[in-house]
Amino acid sequence: MHAESRRRPVDDHREAVRALIGPALAVARRAEACDLAEELAAAGRGSAAGARVAAADVAAVVDLPGFDNSQMDGYAVRAADLTGAAPSDPVELPVGAPVPAGTQPPPLAPGTAAPVMTGAPIPDGADAVIKIEEVDPPAFPEPGTAATVRFTAPVALGTFVRRAGSDVAAGDVVVLAGTRLGPAQLGVLVAAGVSEVEVAEPPHVLLISTGSELVAAGEPLGPAQLYDANGAALTAALAEVGCRVTHRVVPDDPAALRTVLAEAPDDVALVVTSGGVSAGAYEVVRQTLTDAWFGHVAVQPGGPQGLGTIALGDPTAPRDVPLVAFPGNPVSALVSFELFLRPVLAEATGAVPAHRPPGRAPLAEAVDSPEHLHQVRRGRLDADGRVEMVGGPGSHLLAHLAMATLLVHVPPGVAHVDAGDDVDHWEIR
Ligand code: AMP
Ligand code: MG
């Protein structure tokens, strides 16, 4: 058999990742209480990571609306008082005390009409509101002046009255389990008097950047050293899909990697590594985690991959946790995340939609691709809605990825796509 045909197809590898980590994440997740005021304060500082997801149905504490209120600026009346009103035979009523929002009005005396503002309570006894524009005169009198108002038509019971509980009644579910707490959900929870919500605990991911050449952000850079781009990129990517991340950097030294695994926090549900998975001489992940599968996926970038279960914690009482190992080139690592991990984690957490928005558009330029591989290029739409490449296929071209807005897919079996031919793409921001 030709070596290339033994590469695992992209979809098969994603399914293998899903089969391994899906159940592990489902078991590991617990519910925790989320204080809405704290959550909103964090959101206001722009520091909320992935959206929180309700772990259980949440019920309203108070009715919404909380009291019968007016849908219009107008007059609260008893509909029975206007029976028979007509332009030729208007009903004239004395004007009662006005009702601004935030005040509790006295009951409406029979045979009177009370000015009521939008959202203000309907006085007891009133059962309909007539818009100010439809009465004569079409403006409210100065408060405190004796006045009358004429109505030229009858009104149906309940007109422009928003009934208490017509949006939701106390005790009814306002947010279903599994729903992301987005703007409308946070709004309704606050409106419905809820101050604390059970949310699913974010999965705790141990992210390990491997490479003796790596330097942490902000440290001085020595000869042949480079900054740990993957630590930053994958931390942000994991946080965006609703994970909590502990990040470590290890050199290409099996003992150092073993130490980090032995000292992993107790609640780590998944280990993600970058680097050290190829067939070179200093491949620390592949050489240390020998129980895992290491092989090639038919994709470019991101061909070398690892997947399996590893032992964390005290070696005499180890805990088995899934491992997803990505190659080290920054574009390979992020494209691997997009293809294999993001959809699975998004499904598990519910923090973001499972799929990047897909699209299809003609290429602005011809593209070549290795025929046996699924090639993922970086692109953007030009002014004519055609897909142009941002940089070449190289897996080190991180600055180009940062400028791109699309991942462009050239499927296996295709060696060349002409300008003008359609390609599939995913929107990545
Ligand atoms: P590896 O997969 O370990 O062979 O790494 C492949 C390439 O990616 C090498 O040029 C590494 O220097 C680079 N690389 C590995 N890890 C990182 C990282 N965390 N940040 C930036 N570049 C990296
Ligand atoms: Mg390396």
Tell me what you see in this structure:
The protein has 429 residues and is of the alpha+beta class. The model has no long low-confidence stretch (mean pLDDT 94). Helices cover 21% and strands 27% of the residues. The protein starts with 9 loop residues before the first helix and ends with a strand. The protein is elongated and about 100 Å long. Strand 23 (374-381) and strand 24 (387-389) form a beta hairpin. Adenosine monophosphate (AMP) binds at residues 209, 211, 213-214, 226, 228-231, 274-276, 278, 280, 327-330.
Give the key terms.
429 residues, alpha+beta, 6-stranded mixed β-sheet, 27 strands, 27% strand, binds adenosine monophosphate
Helix share of residues? 10-25%
Low-pLDDT parts are: none
What gross morphology would you assign?
Answer: elongated
What's the end-to-end separation, in Å?
41 Å
* Rg over alpha carbons: 32 Å
Structural class: alpha+beta
Count helical runs.
Answer: 8
Report the sheet-strand fraction. 25-35%
Average pLDDT over all residues: 94
Topology of helices and strands:
Elements: H1 10-28, E1 31-35, H2 36-44, E2 58-59, E3 69-70, E4 74-77, E5 91-94, E6 114-116, E7 128-131, E8 148-151, E9 161-162, E10 173-175, H3 183-191, E11 196-200, E12 204-210, E13 214-215, E14 226-227, H4 229-240, E15 244-250, H5 254-262, E16 268-274, H6 284-288, E17 293-296, E18 299-300, E19 304-312, E20 319-326, H7 330-349, E21 358-362, E22 367-368, E23 374-381, E24 387-389, H8 398-403, E25 406-410, E26 416-417, E27 422-427
Parallel strand pairs: 12-15, 12-16, 13-14, 16-20, 18-23
Antiparallel strand pairs: 1-11, 2-10, 3-9, 4-6, 4-7, 5-8, 17-19, 19-20, 21-27, 22-26, 23-24, 23-25, 25-27
Helix pairs in contact: 1-7, 4-7
